[in-house]
Amino acid sequence: MDRYDMDIVVVAPPPEHDTSSRIKEWRLKSQSGTLKDKDFMEFFKTESTKYFEFQNEMETVKCVFKESLAKEEIIDPIIEFMLGDKPAQALEKLQKEGNTATVCNKVFKNGEPTYSCRECGVDPTCVLCVNCFKSSAHRFHKYKMSSSGGGGCCDCGDDEAWKRDQYCELHLANRKNPLESNIITKAVLERCEICFSAILAFCVKFLEIEPNASMECLDGELDGANFCTVLYNDESHTFDQVIHTLTKIAKCRQKDAMEIVAAIDREGRAVVKCDTFKECNDLKEAIENQMIPHSGLHTARHSQSLRTSVLNINAVACQQFALQLLGWFQEFIVRHYLFRRTFAMLIQQKNEPFCIRHILEYDVKLWKTARTCWHRLLISGMLMEYQNKMVLAQEFSRRYATIVEDFIRDDHDHSFSIVSLSVQLFTVPSIAHHLIAEEGIFDKLLHTFYHVAIEEFIRNRTLHFSKDMASMAFFKRANYILYDLRYLLSFKPESFSEELRTGFLDGCKALIRVLNVMQGMEPITRQMGQHMDYEPEWECAFNLHIKLASTISQVIEWASSDAELLRKLYKMTVRALVSNSFIVGQAKLESKRCGHNMADCLIYDVSTQPVSIHLPLSRFYAGIYLHLGAHGMSYDSLLAETEALNLRLNPREIIQPVLCTQAMIAQVAAGMWRRNGYSLLHQLYFYRNVRCRVEMLDRDIVCLQTGASLMESNEFLIQMINMFNLLGWVDPSLEPGISQTQSDDEHVRQVAMADEFLELLIVIIGERWMPGVSRVTEQDRLRKEIIQLLCIKSYSHSELSRALPDGNAGNSDNIIEDVISSVAVFKKPVGVDSKGVYELKEQPHEEFNVYFYHYTKEEKSKAEELQRERRKAKKELVCCPPPMLPQLTPAFTSMANILQCDLFFMIVEQVIDSTLSGFGRRITESHLQKVLHLLGFAIQEELSDHYPFLSFYKSSQSIRLQEKLEKLARCPRLEAHRDFVLWTLQRYKQLQARQAPSTSLYGTGGGASTSAAALSGAAHSSHGDAPPLSSEQQQLREKEARSRLAAESRAKIMAQMQNAQQSFIKSNAEMFASELRATDDGGSMDWEDISSTDEFFTEGDEEEGAVGLSTGVACLGARRNFCSPTANHFKCILCFEDCSISSSGPPLVSSAFLQTSHVIYTAPSVEGPATALHVSCCGHVMHYNCWKEYYSSEETKEMRRPQRNRVPLNQPQNVEFHCPYCRTLSNTVLPVSEALPKMLPPAAAAAAAGAGAATWMPLDCFVELMRTLSVELKRSKPNDADFPNSQSILRKSDIVSDVAQLERSAQITEQPPLHANWLEVMNSFHKALRTAMQTQLLQPAANDEDMDTVSLAWITCSYTVQALEVYLYATQKPLRAELPMRHQSCMSNLVRACSLYSASLLSKEQQQQQRSSSTGPSSSSESTAKLIDTLLPSQCEQVAKLLDSLFNQKGCSVLEWDCFRMLVKLTFMMPNLLVYADKKAIIPSGSMFDFYILQSCFLANLTKALVLFNYEREHAKQLKRPATTESEERAMAMHEYVEGLPEKIKHNMVAFYQNNNFARITSLYEQGAVQQMDVSTTGGDDVAAAAAAAAAGCDEHELLVAMLMYVQREMSSFLRCACLFYRCMTDVEFPDSFPLEQHDRFELMCHYLGLESQLGVYFDMESVYATMMQSFAAHAKERWESLNLSLEKPTQRISSQLPSPPPRVIVPCQRAVPKLVKLFDDYSDLINSVSDIFCPNNEREEMKTPTMCLICGTILCGQSYCCQPELGKIQVGACTHHAHYCGAEVGIFLRIRDCQVVYLGRGKGCFVQPPYLDEYGETDQGLRRGNPLRLCKAAYDRIYLQWLGHNLHEEIARLNENANVAVTQWHHM
Ligand SMILES: [Zn+2]
Ligand SMILES: [Zn+2]
Ligand SMILES: [Zn+2]
Ligand SMILES: [Zn+2]
Ligand SMILES: [Zn+2]
Ligand SMILES: [Zn+2]
Ligand SMILES: [Zn+2]
Fold this sequence. Notes:
The protein is of the alpha+beta class. It has 75 helices and 36 strands.
């Protein structure tokens, strides 16, 4: 054994032995028969210690087991020994022989996708792995997908799992492969046997956590630092608790502690320390003594200490190797059947340490990974072949009690316990049946359950759960037994063998024992006087019920198929019921009378004695009873048998417990149990709830129906009436005069109880869609349920399936769907937000029953209302009559008799008579309605002819029913019920009509009772008027009369009008005709026609030439229009006072939201950082002072908010608030300013307006002036005294111009008169800009001087404009399309604010004025001076640089400019520097200078487009592009235009192209180099096309056409931005000629901006344009040759993360519209694509929550402890980190495995609807339903537009505000 010194880093020594010699030695031994498994075990033990390494560095231990070396040195020799000299070849040959596995058994990892077939799967547990699914027939069937919780395995190839298509292609092919092998000879197998047993023995021995391994390796050495403290996983401590312990006790650094914890979670244990035994042991004890602080949920388990042990290093090494060995071994035996056979044979040897029994039982002693390894081995080794599976199943069953008890004591998750194998074994039908028959597993499961889970709670033969939460944990674990039970019984056998029957009955006996103690559990007693002190525990009992309910249903289902079973089970149940004393045993018998009927009743006062909701035994009886009839048995036929056993159970006793519970429920409804608190109400809720009612409410009703069919009807009714305490109500003679003495309270109660009683009676008679009660099937039952549900409202697919009980049959889904489609139609969703819903067809409405027993009160009234509306619309009687009832089965037939028994008529008579006589105190309208409903049942039952004994009509005559009904119909008080009464009468008369032929036979003397007489009597007698009208009919008549009158008068008026009109037209005929002609002519004055006439360019220089254009509107330049005055009156949304903008008045502001953004800048460019700021603004106006008040109160609120809601990232950030009016998220304000041109003094404006072209400084002079300015700015500091004023600059620039001309052109004015607070607003806006930028830079707050916040404002302005342009483009909106208010007002507020700010910024006076007015003493002129001192130089420097590159061809070239951004910066920075020394100001508002800046930038952009034009590529694209009429027209126009150009211009164009175009130059230099430029398109096509075009010597004309069209297209982004920008600046509206539908047109935009739209003009060598373009182009060429530029690529988006300088890129004229990642169309493709993805920090760990960034497509390891990068010194989740860089603090992520989309922003977040929908148009967050999902483009577009429109923050805030979102630690995402 080697020991290593602690101080040296350990390196594995070279192998001591030559491996070949070792193999030789084994072979010799093997031949002599002396080779033992001990030899190998010793080998494993000594060798494995060599590959374990650890390092102690800085308190942290790092351990590594070198697996690859161990594989080579230990495992490979074994393989060689087993398979012979050339193991690799042997394995290869074996592969060729073909795999013999016909089942897949691939074990699923956590989160791996699984597929189940809804058509073929035998039950929902049958699943396929991706590979099998893809190559199986099921992919074409209806399938479901879900993601595995880990541990299950693929069922491909299992005959019993699938009804058909059991095999995928691969496994079907494997069936043909021979089981024998030429490679695996007998000798090989013998060697394998020895090796296998050595491997198994080694692993068994060493993997156990505690004693064996350590003892083995101790060797008595207790000194030396060769021990480890190992910490194990448990599920009772949280990550944070363990991290806390580690940092506190083991002194780990936080980061290391987190790594260790992640490892513990992953592998189940981790080494915490390596040191001497003492040190290690001390640590162990310290950890164990550490009391873990209580977490929120404190259960008994949480007080336990962490599990630790001290192990010898060698022991750890052996364990690590054993894990590796097991993993390898599992893969090895998968290779061939013969290996598995050997393995199975070995582990069946009972005396070996590795026998199955031991493996099963010692599972609990292992840690997580070790367990998983064994489980996988068992699955691979034992589940592939049926015989082995059976063997394992048998052993598993035999050990079941032990391993389950171990599991319950243990605290690992179920999937990490050997118990979880049950799903593999018990779901195989033949195995399950075998186990029940031979191993008594049914009995064993329930016995174990009884013993471990409930026995301790039994008091007095009934269950009473305690309120102790601690017991819940183990109770929950015990419930897994009941899941196993469900697996076991999920298949009803075809037939029963004697053994199976016995085994099953044994199980039933155990089940009945459980039910017996559940009968009456958690009893409740009505609380009188005081309220309950505490809410009693009730959940435990209901949980038990829920877990057991499906088993009960299954048992009944099994029993129903076998008469013998049923008989025995019936007797067993009767025996249990007789022995159970709950209620029945305590009640005494008493005789009760009602009317003329007497009955013996059990007396049990529900209002004082305990009752219970839980009566599983009675319900079980009812369940069994339902099936007796099908086997020719009945209560009576079995009576003799039970009585022979001395078991007497009469019908009264059967129903008594249920009746008590019903009475209690009725009393609750009558308000008698109010003091019992909420727990009772909760219980009653669940009693009816879809999850419980199948084995609760439904069975109770069957039980009462059983009683009703077994008892004489009057007797049954007396039982009920007595239990409801209503004898006196039914028979007033019993309590004479009592109604007077009754207190009001009692009276109200009695009325309410009577109501409940009648409703229960309706339910007992009417709810018979139950197989066994009447002649219906399960499908009919389902159908009824669905109809009733759809009568409430239309349901979406998921709502509907949630509202239906789970079926037990495997493919109930399909049945449900069939039934649904038979009664309803699916309405497809209409919008993105709506779901598709099912609507009930017309016909099934007839089956509606308003008293449906599953309805809640709300559902009932909703359904009733809908039904009435529907009938009204159809002009039917407006009421909800009872439906026709299905025919009762023979066993239940006598139930129908209730409807004609004495007591029934007595009740009917009572109710109707009291109603007619004015109700009295005892009867309400509700009683009447219910009685009518019952009468409806009775009439229809007789009409159905199902029951020959039924003679309701005859009996009804004794109470003169018809007469009474007619009276009711006429009674004016009963208006509301008239239609129902009429309906009843109609049906009654139908009954009467059928009696007609026979009435004469009966001929009883009572005159009016003969039908003929009755009929005529009804029509004409007593009152002699027409039969009463229904309310509907009456309304209809009135309506008809009214509408007839209306129609008549309308017709009259129409006729008059028509006459008048005709005479008018006649007299004015000529006038009409001329008007028509005029409109025709006007149409020709259209833009398109004029712009395509070519003379117009040639005359372009002469002003009068452009007739058409000069009439249009321009906002800039020589033809400039002036803004029309717009109203500026507002109402402050805070104080509601009227206000208007004026420069002297108090400033108005509008709340705005500032965010960092990466949406449209995809790469950093030369002019600034990659991140920009975006502003949005809702446009609601308030006083600045009002806002300040509001804001400070919001701020305090924010500070007071609980810590958990605050952003954990401790960076400074702008306080968020909501617009007080519209609640839009905001974090700053923008000033609302007047239109800029109005800020000019009237004189200046007039001068500008009146001046002719000659009075302006021309463009070339402007250029010269700018060049001079740039030199001056560089030469002298602006603070210097000699900083030149505008005049001196004018002089120096040496141009012919005067000062007045300059002043006119630049619109130089005095300082703008701004209110003192105006600058304060702007400064606060600036502060917000700076803060926002800092959060992105993650830097500590820089002082004012460090950050150029002023330029930030200009950049923000240009970015916001560009973002809007892109958004409009993406939504295909032209400029003139209606802009939402928030865009419109945001833009103008921002541009105006920037413009005014630029004019006042450099003025010391302005700044001082502001400071002194704002905060008093703290402000000083000194700080103002300082601000300007620092501000000025930076502005100067920037302007100088800008001017240099624009006019002096220095620095970067047009290729690297974003021309629009440049334009905005120049506009706001340059003019006021020009006049700085004059102490004057320039307000950029559309002056000639502004126009020149635009022209310069326009020319620059134009040059860039020309230079980057690629003829070959354009040509190729042109061919591919589908031709639209619009594009064709434009092409035609362009052709004509080019043809009309003067030759000189054409020549210039071609020359420019040849000299400057890059593609042209490159293609001249080297043919292949085109691609260098051409990064956006790839592929040989273009190259080929280029070559072809070059060979053809491209046609000059074609070239020019293509070039000019290209240029126009490429200019559109710049022009659109410019249009938006200048509109806000000049307030000149877009002209009406701008299109509303089509794309914006080049000519129109140019014209609006005052630019020349005819491109030919720019190539006139005489003009300054051509000179400028030439110099731009020359610079670009030079620059491009010196630097290796590349086109901007989207992939460089996150390059800001890299510290390296950003690459030099060409900024294209037209940026690609930003897009989100393209997603797979089929969701399963997406989920499969990440099924094998690993965490980037840990290659061994699969990502638990793979999360895709939808902006860039990166897949991140979300919300996990393994990936917690640092962001600004805080550890955050991978998504938060990524979002910071990728989306500038906001991100859109798709959590792939649970199909959820998350928006993340600044520590906040929200879940939004994922873009994947199923065929019903519904999302499936968390994959709960598993329907196949497909990408919904509309839904994805919505996410896209929210992102593109910068609305994510807003959306997050909105969703968080509205919903009560559980607090999520979003930054951990
Ligand atoms: Zn598979
Ligand atoms: Zn397969
Ligand atoms: Zn299928
Ligand atoms: Zn106000
Ligand atoms: Zn607002
Ligand atoms: Zn990303
Ligand atoms: Zn990770």
